[in-house]
Hints:
Blueprint lengths: L3 E9 H8 L5 E4 L7 E7 L17 H6 L5 E2 L2 E16 L1 H5 L9 H8 L4 E17 L8 E9 L4 E2 L3 H7 L3
Parallel strand pairs: 1-3
Antiparallel strand pairs: 1-7, 2-6, 3-5, 4-5, 5-6, 6-8
Amino acid sequence: MMESTHKCLKEWNATIEALGQGKQTILIRSYGTTSNGFLLYPTVSYAKKDNFLEGFQPEYQSFVEENALPDKKGDKFAIKYYATVEKIVEKSPSAVSRLQKDYIWTSEHVRNYLKGKKAQVWVLRVYKLKEPYMAEPTPGAIKYANLKEKVSLDDIEPILSDEKFSKVLEI
Length: 171
């Protein structure tokens, strides 16, 4: 495993916290990735919409509200997690709704996002960094970003035990 990285995947902060707290184990994308690991860089644009909570399952809405915005110092955001892509599985939009226990969004939100395309389900193994890294904004980057300096991956701790994670891989 590499000992440091500057590669980031940009994602909604509430989704990152769900991954980082074991409430979610997958990302649903309309595209695959060749990257096998990245830091999870929090974004907030979704939280500026009045009805953003409607995209999340009712039992997660208070969690999403509490975690809508990342920890900040000035204009820097806290990066707390690193993820490895353990597997990517292609699923039809209807098959994705059967995975609802593995994510916090509503099935309708996922269907709207996919627009009829097949889903690329990224099964992630998420790790907590030893110390949060305060990252500068990365303007312009939409999906991926590179930080100016590398972040240490020493002593990262998996969020889920090997036993729990092996069940996730059965998707």
